[in-house]
Structure formats: C-alpha cells, structure tokens
Predict the 3D structure of the following.
Amino acid sequence: MNRAALLARESFVELGARARAKALLDTGTFRELAGPFDGLTSPWLERQGVVPQGDDGVIVAKGLIDGHPAVVLAIEGAFQGGSLGEVGGAKIAGALELAAEDNRHGIPVRAVILFETGGVRLQEANLGLAAIAEIHAAIVDLRRYQPVIGVIAGQVGCFGGMSIAAGLCSALVVTREARLGLNGPAVIEQEAGIAEYDSRDRPFIWSFTGGEQRLATGLADRFVDDDSAAIRATVAALVAQPPAAVHRSDRHEDYLRRLGAYDPAAQAEPATVRQLYAGDQQ
C-alpha cells in the first residue's frame, strides 16, 4: 500500500465496537437493539466491585449490507477484555436465534460477528460458558440458511470458547493484527512455563496465532489490511454468497488425523504448524 493510500484509510482496529458495526452497515440503516439505555447490565459485576456497562460490552445492530438484511454483533474489547457473561452472551445468542427464525419465515437475514474477546468472563463463570454454548448452537443453526461471517481485527484477538464460535462461522476474516487461539498466551505460559510459551514475546505469539499464520493454516479464509473500507468490502462479498456446503467444523476428522500425526515431544515452530495443516484445504 502506497503512502497516500495508507494515510487515507480509516483503521478498523482503532474503532470501538459500535463504530465497527456502523462501518459495516449501509449508511443510514444502523439500528441498535438492546442498547445501553435499555438497562441490560450484568447483575454480577457490581457485587464483585466491577462497574458494569450499559450494553454489557456487546453491540447488536440490524441494518443492510449492500442491500442484504443483516445483524452485526460486535464485542467491545475495551470492556473487561471483551469477556462474555450472562447478558452479553444472551444478546449474541438471541440475535442469532432470531435471525434463524427470520430465515424460516422467508426473511434472509445474514449475521456478522466482530470478535474482540478473551472468552468467558471469569466473574460469571458457568453462566458465561452456558451463553457461549448457546452461541455455538445458534451459529450452526443459522449457517444452514445464510452465511455467518466472523471478523477478527485486533487488538484483543479471539480466545477461549469464542475461538470455537469463530471456527464455526461460514467464513472468517482476519487482519495482520488479529490473533486466534483456544488459550491465550498468558494462560499457556502459566500452565506450561515460560520456556514453552513466552507471553511477552510478541513476534513469537503472532507467528503462531496471528492472522497471517491462521490464513496459511486454513483456519481463516480472508486476510485484509486494517482498513475499514477493505474490511467492509470483504464482508459484503461474503454475505452475498450462498450458504456453504461444507464448513470447517465438518472436517473435524481430518484435523484430528493431522494432529494425531504430530509428535508433541518436539518443540513446535510456526513452520511446523503450517506443514501440519498443509494439504487439500477446502
């Protein structure tokens, strides 16, 4: 990208969740549901000395993407690390379930999930885990009718149970700044030791879980610069496609076979991971 184009672009990573949702929807069609003035705050955070947020860190917006009916679900990474609890998780699951119901009644609503999350909110534990499980089920239901597109831009990335949600999406869009993994770097270091995984080594972390690596290993489908217009164009193209015949999660036996061929006694390297997942990506 030349200097003029670099200066002219609007960073998607630097936008908050609400602004990201607006950036994807057609001008003038953004309509927020269950917003900050509806009083849907977490009932658990204040009891633990945490100030709740009016929207519980999740934006639900309906509108159009290039004329297609869509619901955009954006997670605010700046609130509690984008962690999901009972309320925020229910907002996402409920919106996906309603979109599937719309499709069963002939209204072709697509869904876009903007992941910026460390996974379950520890203060809400099992309630958050149950909500994330409901999100998984709702994605699988909706993707039979219309595409469910995931976007991981940065700065938090996508970890924990919500990384499974990302893997269930019809297509996953990532940037260079994105990270995707079941366990976060600090958790791996805590459990396996710094010699195994140094959470302060940023180049090392991105070489394993960054957007470029995830695209190379077939765990993401589109790689886009941190540019709002480019991300919107990519998402618009994906939501216009028919539902996928085969999803990444349908290939679980192939992934298990590949993992079964790996010797865990050997120290993994980014190139090793690419070789492991190389082959007939579908």
In short: The domain at 10-247 is CATH 3.90.226.10 (2-enoyl-CoA Hydratase; Chain A, domain 1). The chain has one domain: 10-247. The first strand starts at residue 31 and ends at 33. DSSP finds eleven helices and seven strands in the chain.
